[in-house]
Amino acid sequence: MVATSWLLLIGLAAAAIAGVLQARAQPDNIGFISIDCGLPGTANSVDDATKLSYAPDAAFTDAGSNQNISVEYVTSTLAKRYLNVRSFPDGARNCYTLRSLVAGLKYLLRAEFRYGNYDGLNRPPIFDLYAGVNFWSRVNVSSPETVHRLEAIVVVPDEYVHVCLVNTGSGTPFISVLELRPLKSSLYPQANATQGLVLFARINFGHTNATDIVRYPDDPRDRLWLPLFDATLWDVMSTTDRVQNLNNDKFEAPSKVMQTAIIPRNASNNITFFWGSTPQPRDPTPGYIVIMHFSELHLLTGNAVREFFLETNDVVWRSSLGFRPDYLLSDAFYTTAPLPAAARYTVNINATANSTLPPFINAVEVYSVISTANAATDSSDVSAITAIKAKYRVKKNWAGDPCGPKTFAWDGLTCSYGISSHSRITGVNISFSGLDGDISSSFANLKAVQYLDLSHNNLTGSIPDALSQLPSLTVLDFTSNQLSGSIPIGLLKRIQDGSLTLRYGNNPNLCTNADSCKPPKGKSKLSIYIAVPVVLVLVIVSGVALFFLFMRRKKQGSTSTKNTVRPQNEPPMSYAPAPLPPGDVHEQSSLHLENRRFTYKELEMITNNFQHVLGRGGFGKVYNGFLEDGTQVAVKLRSQSSNQGVKEFLSEAQILTRIHHKNLVSMIGYCKDGQYMALVYEYMSEGTLRQQIAGNGRHGKRLTWRQRLRISLDSAQGLEYLHKGCNPPLIHRDVKATNILLNAKLEAKIADFGLSKVFNHDDETRISMNTLVGTPGYVDPEYQATVQPTTKSDVYSFGVVLLELVTGRQAILSDPDPTSIIQWVRRRLARGNIEDVVDTRMHGEYDVNSVWKVADIALKCTMQAPVQRPTMTDVVAQLQECLELEEGHRTGGGRRGSFYTGSNSDFDLGYNAYTTDSQSTDVSQTSIAFEMDHNFGKTSRMGGGPVAR
Ligand SMILES: *[C@@H]1O[C@H](CO)[C@@H](O)[C@H](O)[C@H]1NC(C)=O
Ligand SMILES: *[C@@H]1O[C@H](CO)[C@@H](O)[C@H](O)[C@H]1NC(C)=O
Ligand SMILES: *[C@@H]1O[C@H](CO)[C@@H](O)[C@H](O)[C@H]1NC(C)=O
Ligand SMILES: *[C@@H]1O[C@H](CO)[C@@H](O)[C@H](O)[C@H]1NC(C)=O
Ligand SMILES: *[C@@H]1O[C@H](CO)[C@@H](O)[C@H](O)[C@H]1NC(C)=O
C-alpha cells in the first residue's frame, strides 16, 4: 500500500512535469513559438530588443545535447539566444515538434544557426533541414561568427509540425534558435498546401542604419527586414507618416519598412539590382518568386507624375501601362509563379516617358519554392504511436514523422504511402525492446495496423479486447511476455472467423484454458477486480458448454471437443474451428464464449413482455428489446405453430455462433427454455431492404443510387464471405430483400440463416437436399429442377435483389399478369434504354454508366445456366467499380456539377499588381549580428531617364 502511494506520487509528479513541458511547447499568447535551442534549465531568456521570450528546448525535442559556443565568439552585442546551441551527434534525423497549431493554417518557420565553434573543431557542418516530411533547405554554415538564417512559409497540415535536422555526413547538425509565427491564410498566396516558400532575401530599401533589422513588434508577423542602402547610387525618400495597408493586403508590409524608399541619385537613372541563382541539392536551378513593395511617400502636386516600368531579366511587367503607386498606401507587385530559371536575376525599374519624377522602391522579397506535397502520417496514427513511444520510452530513431520521408521512417514501423494522402502505419514491430508495463490502449488507436509484434518483452497485465476492433489486424504477436488474464472474447471471435492470427506462447500466467482460469488468491481489493471478470467468463463458458452438450445429442461422435484455446509456441498458427462434415451443421467443435444464453423470463423483461413487434417471418415474430446495459436488440421468438422447426432454429443458432462478418447480422444470444426458443440479434434500426426500397423505411426516405450501391456491395460481401470466407462454406438458400437488414448507418447485413446449408468445396454439386426451399421469385431455376443447391443459387437470388435496387420494384410484378422482375427488365433493356427500368424516384440522380453496369451484373447473375453466372467474388469486384463510377460522377465527372469560367486574365502574364492595410508601429531595435546573405547585389546604370519638366 505504501509502495503504491509512492508510485502514485511519482506518477503524479511525472505527469505534472510533463504538463509543464507540454504547456511550454505551445504558442504564447500572440501565437508565437520562440525556442532558444540548447538553453539549459527551465527559465526563458527574454530578448532585449523585441522583448520576446525564448523558451528552453527540452519540451520540444528528446534528443541531442546542450552546448555553449566558444568564448571567442561571445561578443557584447550578441543576443543571449546565440550563446548556446543544441547539437545532435547521434542518429540520422533529429526533430523538434511544435504543437498546438491550427491544422491548415499558414506559418512562418525560422531556424537560426550560429556555430561559434561550440565543439572546438573549427569546422562548421553542412546538413539538411526538413519542414515536416518535406525537404526545406541545405544548411551550409560557412563561418563560425555569422548567423545563418533559414525561413520558410508553409501551410501546416496538422496540429503540429516537426522541424528536423538530417545528418548528411558533413559534420554534426546543430541549431541555435527556432521560431514559428502564424500568418493569416490570405497572406502569401503563393504558399499553399502543396507548395512552400523559402526566403532568399527580404530587403528594406533606404533604411540608413545598417544594423537595424525591422522585425517584431514593428512587423506584427515578426518577419526580418534587412536594411539595404548604397549612398553612392541611391538617395533616400522617406516619411514619418504612417503607410497604410488595405484590408485585403496579401503581404502586409509593415509601415516602418514602407516609410523608407530609394530613388536613383541621378534622377535620369534606372534602379537596378540583381541576385545570382543559388543551387540547392534538390533543385539545381531554383526559380524565384519576387514581391516588390511600393508606396509613394511624397504628395505629388500639379503636373508631377511618377510612373515607371518593372522589368525582370529583360521581361517588362504589364508593358502597356506604367505603375503609379498610391500615396502612403502599401502596394505590392509580385509574381505568382517562379521566374524562368537563369543564372542571374536582374530587376530594373525605369521611369516611363510620361514620368516627371524618378522611379523608386521601398522593399523587396525574393523566395524560392519547395514542394510540400509529401503527406505526413495520419494524425491519429501519430498521436497513438507518440503515446506508445512515451509510455515505453522507446529508444530508437523515433523522432519526427513516423512514416515520412520513407528513408527516415521509424525503426520497426511499416507504413502505407498514398499519393497525396496521409501515410498510415500498417505494421509495428517492437519485439525484443525491453517494454514493460501493461499493453498500451493506444495500440487500439492504430486503425490501419495489420501486423503488431510485441513479442519478447516484459509486458504484464491483460490483453485489451479493444484490439479486436482493429479492422485490418491480421497478426498479433505477444509471444514471450508476462501477460495474464484470458484471451478477450472479441479476439477469440476474430481468431475463429479466420481474420486474425494470435501468437501468445510463453506467457506463463496467461489463462488460455477455461479450467486453469482460477481466481487468484489473496484478499486485497485488487484481486477482487481481477476475479470478477474471470468468474463472469466461467459463467459464460459453462452456459455455452451446456448449450453445446444439448446440441450434440445427434452427433456422429468422431470429432473431439476442445473447449480451450491451446497456447501456441512454434510454429505459430491461427486458431480456426475444425471443418464440419458436409450436410450437417449440428457438428460443433469450437470454442464459443461470446453468446449469452437467456431464460424465457429474461426475454420477457428484455422485450417488456413481448410488447413491440418489429416484424414477422416463418419462424415467428421478432420483438424489440433492450438489454440491461441499454443495448437495443431484436428478439426472434419461435412461435409454437411455426412451420420452421427446431432444426432450423438450431441450425441458425449454430451458424451464427460460428461466423462473424460485418455484413452478416450478429447474434448476441439465444434462449432454449422448455418449449421456448428464441434468438437475440443486434438491432437493425432501418429494417429490411424491402421496406427501404418500397420507401417504407423509418424515415420514409427514398434510397439514393449511391446508398443502393453501398447496400448491394455490403450484401454481396456478406454472401461472398459465406461462400468463400467461412470454413466450411455455407449456402444461404434464402437470399431476398427481406433478409437483408440495414442499421442506422444504412450498412447492410445478411440475416436469416435458418435454411443455410454447409457444403463441401470440392464436391459442391453432390449435396442433395430432399426439399426445395426458398422464396418465389428468387429461386434459381436450376435448383428448382435438380433440388441441388449451389453457391450459384445464391448468386441468382442476389441478382434479383440487384434488380429490385435498380428498378425499385418487387421480385414478382403484376404486369398485368405475374411476371418475374428478370423477364420484365430483360424485355425493356432489349430496347436499349436504361431509363425505362430505373426507379424514377431517384429523379435521375445517378451515373448512367454505373446503373447500366449494375443492371448488367444483375442479368449475368440471373442467367439460366449456373456456369454462366459470376461468383460472388466477381460480383463484389464489379460492384466496387460501379461505386467508383458513381463517386466519379458525384465529384463532377457526370452531367451535373461541372462548369467552366471564362478566363479573365488574358492579358496577365503571371504578374499581378496588388494593393494592400497596416498597423501602428513602434520603433525597436535588435542586436543581431547578420551578414548580407545570398549574393544580393545592386547596380545602377546610366541611360536615358525621364526628363524632369
Ligand atoms: C499550389 O500552387 C501551385 C502553383 O500555383 C499549384 O500548382 C498547386 O496546384 C497549388 N496547390 C494547391 C493544393 O492548391
Ligand atoms: C503617356 O501619356 C500619354 C498621354 O497622356 C498617354 O497616351 C500614354 O498612354 C502614356 N504612356 C504611358 C506609358 O502611360
Ligand atoms: C542603428 O541601429 C542599432 C541597432 O538597432 C542601434 O543600436 C544604433 O544606435 C543605431 N544607430 C544609429 C546611428 O541610429
Ligand atoms: C533603363 O532601363 C531600360 C529598359 O531596360 C534600358 O533600356 C535602359 O538602358 C536603362 N537605363 C539605364 C540608365 O540603365
Ligand atoms: C523603360 O523600359 C521600357 C521597357 O523596356 C522601355 O520601353 C522604355 O523606353 C524605358 N524607358 C526609359 C526612359 O528608358
TrEMBL record:
It comes from the Eukaryota. Residues 558-580 are annotated as: Disordered. Residues 1-18 form the signal peptide. Residues 558-567 have a biased composition (Polar residues). The chain crosses the membrane at residues 526-550. The keyword Transcription regulation does not apply. It catalyses: L-seryl-[protein] + ATP = O-phospho-L-seryl-[protein] + ADP + H(+); L-threonyl-[protein] + ATP = O-phospho-L-threonyl-[protein] + ADP + H(+). The keyword DNA repair does not apply. It is a single-pass membrane protein. GO terms for molecular function: ATP binding; protein serine/threonine kinase activity. Keywords: ATP-binding, Kinase, Leucine-rich repeat, Membrane, Nucleotide-binding, Phosphoprotein, Receptor, Repeat, Serine/threonine-protein kinase, Signal, Transferase, Transmembrane, Transmembrane helix. InterPro entries: Kinase-like_dom_sf, Leu-rich_rpt, LRR_dom_sf, Malectin-like_Carb-bd_dom, Prot_kinase_dom, Protein_kinase_ATP_BS, Ser-Thr/Tyr_kinase_cat_dom, Ser/Thr_kinase_AS. Its EC number is 2.7.11.1. Residues 608-883 form the Protein kinase domain. SMART domains: S_TKc. This is non-specific serine/threonine protein kinase. It comes from Setaria italica. The lineage of its organism: Eukaryota, Viridiplantae, Streptophyta, Embryophyta, Tracheophyta. The gene is LOC101756337.
